Amino acid sequence: MSGTRSRISEEELKELMSKLQSLLPETRRRRSERRASAAKLLKETCNYIKSLHREIDDLSGRLSELIATMDMNSAEAEIVRSLLHS
Predict the structure, then answer these.
(1) Mean pLDDT of 8-29
(2) Which candidate in 2, 36, 58, 79 could, as Cys together with 40 as Cys, close a disulfide (CB 3.0–4.6 Å)?
(3) Would the keyword Transcription be found if you checked this record's keyword annotation (predicted)?
(4) What pLDDT sits at residue 53?
(5) So where are the chain's domains?
(6) 3-state SS assignment for residue 33
(7) Which residues contact 30 (CB under 8 A, 6 or more apart)?
(8) Cβ pair 36, 44 in contact under 8 A
(9) 3-state SS assignment for residue 52
(10) Residue 77 contacts residue 70 (beta carbons within 8 Å)
């Protein structure tokens, strides 16, 4: 017999969905509502991840613009460099 399982129990699935729901900002605000369906929760998770990617892209672009206009020998440039390398 193999030590790995290919299926998870219904209880484990409920626990995982509950943990996922607690991580999503939209579902945290709707605590009073009954639990969302698994399909709705997974769709909201995908949308949240996509929004995080857009935010990262936006912040990366803004940082690139800031660095391009910065005197690379300034104290501010040194701070940015230290943050990027930590």
Answers:
(1) 86
(2) 36
(3) yes
(4) 97
(5) 10-84
(6) coil
(7) 36
(8) yes
(9) helix
(10) yes
Structure-block tokens of residue 22? 């607690």
Contact 48, 25 (CB under 8 A): yes
Q: What does the CA dihedral 75, 76, 79, 84 come to, rounded to 10 degrees?
A: -140
Q: Give the pLDDT of residue 15.
A: 92
Q: Which of 39, 6, 1 is nearest to 20 (CA)?
A: 39
Residue 59, pLDDT score = 93
Q: Please give the structure tokens belonging to residue 71.
A: 């005197």
Q: Which two tokens stand for residue 54?
A: 């857009």
Around Cβ 27, how many Cβ atoms within 10 Å?
19
Looking up tokens 């605590």 gives 31
Q: Is 38 within 8 Å of 18 (Cβ atoms)?
A: no
Given a contact cutoff of 8 angstroms between Cβ atoms, the answer to whether 27 and 21 are in contact is: yes
